[in-house]
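Annex B. Sample input.
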Amino acid sequence: MEPAIAQGIVLRGNQDRDVRVLREYAEFWKIPYVVDPLREENQILVSSGMIPRTEVRNSASVIIFPSGPEDSKDIAKEYGLTFHTRDTLLRLPVSPDVSVAIRTRVNEFSGAGIEPVISDGKTAVLSKIRDTRIHISSVDLVSEYERLVTGGLEEAPSRKFRLVTKFPFSYRAIPSFIRNRAFRTPDAVTEFTEDKLSPVECLRAVFLASLVVAAGLAIPRIAFWRKGKSHALAITHDVETRLGLDEGAGRCADIESKLGVRSTWNIPSERYPLSSQLLICLASTGEVGGHDTKHDGRLIFESFENKVERVGRCKSRLESLCKKEVRGFRSPLLQHGRELLGALGKAGYMYDSSVPSWEPLSPTSLRPHGVGTVFPFFISGMLEIPVSLPQDHQLIRVSGLATSEAVEELFRISRWIHGVGGACVLLVHPDYEFGRPENAEEYYRLLDRFRSDPECEVLTLGELAQWWIHRANSRIETRNGNVSIQYGDRDRPGDLELEIVTGYGSDGFKVSRLDSPEIVPLREHTFRGE
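Annex B, continued. Sample output.
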């Protein structure tokens, strides 16, 4: 017999930042929650920061996540515990064959009256104070999320890169063999591990697992993708040169047409002559996205006003050529930052896809870099869709793999992303190896693996953005033990799937699906981001 459905999940924090980040976790899973309302009995209280014993007496369950070292001291003092901190690799299962991991600093609480209830075998992730309903985590979910996601959005350009962008000519005037040799990192391919690619998924797993175990009740959530699908693929192309557009793009598009899949073509608006007829064709068979004006690496150094003007000019020109709306943007060299996101929002873009989940060597900072998640997320009022798979250039020209080896590496990483239910965002330059005739079979083999998977939803970036916004604007409602989905888009009823998380253990989450949840049109709730 499955446990009853949890109701009355309350999020609380000592600071506005704490509540905001806890909401990010709850919104990611799309679980029902409220933020610190008037106290009622039998609520499940989730807090970032210490809660005194006197304030938890009427709660059904309490989960306390420490919020910084001083707060950990306060928690230990309040509950008669000791604690120490250490850096460790934390690894947790999400399903029988898939785990998530993060390198983090944990706050290990100990004492005669505390026992672990979630552990990775070496580290207690969640502990329970005996004879109470109080649970204390060793993981600072808020600080780590801020470090990875907010910190991952800001990338300091290296002194070498700053120098190159001051040349009176484009960095691409430097011969490609010199640029490739400067970036060559033969061991980079071995560094694509889950703790680097997507540590945020481990934090999200800690949040949901703690909630399920501490509550002892089933937690309803909205599945990530359309009914019958478990993960997604977005095929994207950054077209850097005229040769790539005139020749490589056609070869890639022909293969995609044979397979019946569509892709997003990110094109610089002023770098080389553009054919309206060709862009109309690409927009009708797929989607055209913005890729700055000149692809010169100087976008991030512009003032905010100049950024708005520049990305807006790119959007307007491409729309006039392709005769369709340009909804998304990808920055050259995957440059990114909160100010750029703000500029894109002001210029009218729906989404950005300029942040890597992780890459072994950023051409801007000349260091490993990434935002740490393989899922879309909202930030600064904009939807960011991370580039979750290593781009072809990184695998072939930086890591030195053969094209067939690069395909196998993409398969390996995509299997893990599939396992966590994420979005595989593939970046292929038609200017490079996959756009050449001799590699057509390998490109076909790459896409055919995804196309042949009945659980994979193949989308353009614009379609993926629309779906994620639709999911974000919908919510779960629980009333009198009944569960329903309230749809944000009343024109798309029935495409969301309701799941029930009934437990968590050594095989990860135990999840079942509700086939026919009640559907209620949502009239007032919309997601606007933080």
